[in-house]
From TrEMBL:
One of its GO terms (cellular component) is mitochondrial membrane. Pfam families: HIG_1_N. This is (raccoon dog) hypothetical protein. Signal peptide: none annotated. It comes from Nyctereutes procyonoides (Raccoon dog). The lineage of its organism: Eukaryota, Metazoa, Chordata, Craniata, Vertebrata. The keyword Signal does not apply. PROSITE patterns: HIG1. GO terms for biological process: mitochondrial respirasome assembly. The keyword Ion transport does not apply. The chain crosses the membrane at residues 48-67, 83-102. Residues 20-106 form the HIG1 domain. It comes from the Eukaryota. Keywords: Membrane, Transmembrane, Transmembrane helix.
Length: 106
């Protein structure tokens, strides 16, 4: 069996960059997105997720405020509301994933 010849890479390997593959682009977008652009695009694609996140944060904040004030009944109600808002957020994420999978099949 013959030994393989020496391998001479064209450019040094850079682990912080995606590999360069001829004819392949790792992103479907021609220009890199900023955080704000990506956030706005994702919010437009599935607006229920940020709404659920805000509802979860609001219920948690108000529940902790009520707990601090000694209103245990209202605090318990807000913690249950927080669980419902988290469930809504998870369901919105799953439905968004299913919708994007169905869209990519078409």
């Amino acid at each position: 069996m013959a030994a393989p010849g020496p391998v001479t890479p064209g450019a040094p390997f850079e682990p912080s960059q995606p590999p360069v593959i001829e004819g392949f682009s790792p992103s479907i977008y021609s220009t890199p997105e900023s955080f704000k652009e990506k956030f706005l695009r994702k919010t437009r694609e599935n607006p229920m997720v940020p709404i659920g996140c805000l509802g979860t944060a609001a219920a948690l904040t108000y529940g902790l405020y009520c707990f601090h004030r000694g209103q245990s009944h209202r605090s318990q109600l807000m913690m249950r509301t927080r669980i419902a808002a988290q469930g809504f957020t998870v369901a919105a994420i799953l439905l968004g994933l299913a919708a994007s999978a169905m869209k990519s099949r078409s």
